[in-house]
Amino acid sequence: MRVSTERAGRRPTIKAVAAAAGVSTAAVSQAFNNKGRLSEATRRRILDAALELGWSPSASAAALRNARTRSLALVVRRPTDVLGSDPHFSELITGIEGELAPRGYGLLLHLVSGHREENALYERLAAEGRVDGAVLTDARDDDARPAL
Question: What is the model's pTM?
Answer without folding.
Answer: 0.53
